[in-house]
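Build the 3D complex.
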Amino acid sequence: MTLADYLPIGIMLVLAAGFVAVSLLASRFFRPNRPTPEKLDPYECGIVPEVEPVQRFPVKFYLVAMLFVIFDVEIIFLFAWGSIWTELGWYGVAAVLIFTFFVLETLVYVWKRGALDWNVKRRSRYLAPETRRAA
Amino acid sequence: MITPEISWLAILPELGLALGAAAVLLVEVQWKPRAQVLGMVVAGALTIALAFTVVQWIRAQDAVAGAGQLGDLVAFSRMILMDGFAVFGRFALLVTTAIGITAGWRLIEGLGRRRAEALALILLASAGFSIMVSANNLVMVFLGLEVGSIALYVLAGMTRSSSTSDEAALKYFLLGSFASAIFIYGVALIYAGTGQFEILAIRSFFSAFIVTSPGVILIGIALMIVGLGFKVSAAPFHAWAPDVYQGAPAGFVGYMAAVAKIAGFAAIARILITGLGDLEVNWLPVVAGISALSMVGGSLLALVQADIRRMLAYSSVATAGFVMTGVVGGATSGVLFYVAVYALQLVGSFAVVAAVSGPANSASSMDEYQGLATRSPGLAAGFTILLLGMAGLPLTSGFVAKFGVFSDAWSAGYQWLVIVAVLASVLAFAVYLRVVVNMYMSDAEGPTLEVPDTARWVLMIAAAATIIWGILPGSLLDLASSAFPL
Amino acid sequence: MLTWLILLPVLAAIIVSLVPSRRSELHLSLGIALAVLPLALAGYVFWAFEPVSGYQFIEDVTWYAPWGIGWTLGIDGISLPMVVLTTLLVPIALGASTSIEKRRKEFVVYTLLLEAGMIGVFLALDLFIFFVFFEAILIPMYFIIGIWGSDRRVYAAVKFFIYTAFGSALMLAGIIALAFTHAEQFGSLSFALSDLMRLDLPIGAERWLFAAFALAFAIKVPLFPVHTWLPDAHTEAPTAGSVLLAGVLLKLGTYGLLRFNLSLFPEASVDAVWIMGILAVVGIVYGAVVAIVQPDLKRLVAYSSVSHLGFIVLGTFAFTSGAMQGAVIQNVNHGITTGALFLLVGMLYERRHTKLISEFGGIQKSMPVFAGFFLFMAFASIGLPGLNGFVGEFLVLIGAYATLPVLAVIAASGVVLAAIYLLWAYERVFTGVPEKPENQNLADLSTREVALLAPLAALVLVIGLYPNVLLDKIAPSAEAVLDHVVEASGLVIPEPGRLADVFVTDGEGE
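Done.
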């Protein structure tokens, strides 16, 4: 490969950077700019905020979101298999069964551990059975 | 669409490990059993995996001897290889895993209900690294690397109450994922240059064509070396090692370091020697430089450490350099032998560290080893054998290993590297002797140390292996030299 | 046979280590009793050894075929006396260690392992196993100095280890290079000495390899200027450690020069005559001069070793029959006399817990037997005719005079200096009026201590009066080494440098 072969990539790079720069600059010059105090306030349902916005929210949201992403993404593999499963034959069946087993096994584990339980207290009980027995 | 040729045997060990991991988790949530029960499940999975590995080995040797065909050793659309090299590496990984779990058993027991997660993570890490040593496709190498590494990141942070453990885990994760990204970028560039992901196909590509302007390929090779160099903690990509070795729970560090080294070096050897052998003019000087820097820098830095885990970390940097001389030598058998014996020594050493300063503890000052010979003579004697083995003194397997890789490098024309290596070995002597001095030559008295039985067993096995393969290395050397890659 | 010579001490070490730690009274006596077995075996080998050149009792077992490593053992006139000396000194050194209370079992075990390693070095005819033993002996010696030494023991032990390991590291590279040269020239890797001697090395490579080997051995000897580890190691080591260090370990260096450097690199050896000769002579004079001013008795003996070993190196590189035989026999002599001197210093130290010469004075009144032994060994060390030191140094000087007259003359001054430092030390320690009260009532030697010294004293006399008991067995092997050097390098040795010259003139005279 010679350097000339890289030319399309270079042009693409320049175009991409140029697009960003042009659109930012264009909006800067063409948009009206008349700030008022109300406009500079953070927007919250049209009401002037009285307290600082909440910085942290419960970790269980993360947990659920993460679990959702994991199971959601794994379904994509099933889609790929489903589109050609007749050609893959028994090998495909075996492979997808192994795959599904691991997905379901994870679900069972997560469920039994209480990760799907919205009540944090009940969920954390699993980790400390000794203390519960003592109490 | 062609149905891929299937050889389930090629992945049965990994499948066994993964199913074992699943079984541990399910058993845990269903019955909440005692730790021993989980241990038995894990032992079962490891035994099954080892048994399949032995079958694979026989198959691989038959194929080479002509009873079968070499094509049988390529499976899953050329994704996975079942050659002697892969099987040897996998066997070493499995044995290291078994010993590593035994060494960390007290820590695992202490984890309470999270112990099943630790066990499952260990099994999954081993499965991932096992895929890595047997992968023929660079993307598959990356997949195995990530499965293994991610499990290790979590293991590093397993003792959540300790802030150093958290720090170690985060550091390991950030730097590790960075290195993985660099590696996959290198793979991408190799693909850009050759149109191939498969190591064997890359080899045929380079033996068939001469690339006149290999710029992109060279950058790709360099990035892959950086990424894998990080995984085996070779200088100058070693900065994470001391913090992680020190911060991660002692019960796991030995295992973590050992399996990462085995898999990393297997991948380096396969990619560089097998895949890119025709380009060695380009990468040999780089690898030789990394090797020299690791040996000298690692040993020098290890000399000045006050914490034994940091010292072991830097000495493992030096060891990475020593193993690299084998890569420079171009003979995979030397590399395999070295990492196999070193893995045992590393796990054994950290079993001692865990016994002396507590399995979950993070600090383990050199002073704690003062007078260990009187506080626990067996522990001190076993540790001494391992240290001498890592130093590479004669009559230990470490010497045979070093001798092998140095000879390879010498015959490859890298005489200067061998001379640097033997001089760095002297530095390494000084490093390990410091610990021995602390254990034996100090009059400090202390209470007798209580050593868990599991640690005793691990130490005994590791020390015995170090001595036996030091005196009669033939058995393992023969295996390693018949374990060549396709 | 020879394998057993190595295995017996190992087995003895295992047996001793199996004795429970609390039975501490058993360890030492059991160790001594078991250490007599290799001595008996070595005695048999000595008796059965035919006085001809070449190796005898050869054992050759393949160890790891793909690397060409063999368990190859053999003994010739050069290694034979060293093996006997080693097996003799070990029980004596153990017998002198009754004052060791701390961790006695380990001490006995390390000493026996050290013995196995030392014998292994002398017997090995395969460079790989030679290196294994050469390096392996560092470990027990390191522990012996580091655990049972005096105040600065850790410093001395680490210094000893690192110095010698540094030297042998480069030798390892040299060994690898030789094996691969063999693979290039003969098609297979080999570490056997006999195979490697057939190599045709380019002179440049030969010089580098000579340097790598010579550095390893020079550090061990120790030659000036790499001798600085020795005084520390000797001073800090326990008595048994000093005895074995001086008696055997230092000889590994001179033995290695003679066995490996001359045989493997004859041309480079001939080229290096002046370098090695000058270093040897500098060592002789420097060691002696420094010994004169030592305030510490043990350090004095240590520096005298530097001086005496210079003679051996000079003899080795003089390339005449006499000098070479002198070098071999001086190996033995130095082991006996310096070993005995270290024993004596150790016994004195046990009584007074100091080695400073200024602390003593006039103790021959209370310790006449001790003083007698000390004077006897001092005379042997100086080289008084009729005692063993004379034979060796005389042969070396006469032999060296034929080829290196200037160096021989300077070296001769070492004998005079030896008289100065030893006799002056004797005067300050033993003669005069005992002024310090501690020196007035010192106990004289016990029966045990006399029994330890007596065999050494007997050997001093036997070798001094009838050196042929050794020379007969040494001469053919020494001649063979010279023949090899002459043949390989075309060196012309002036008359009467060779034994043949001497015998012809003798025959004409009769």
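Chain C has two domains: 1-264, 272-504.
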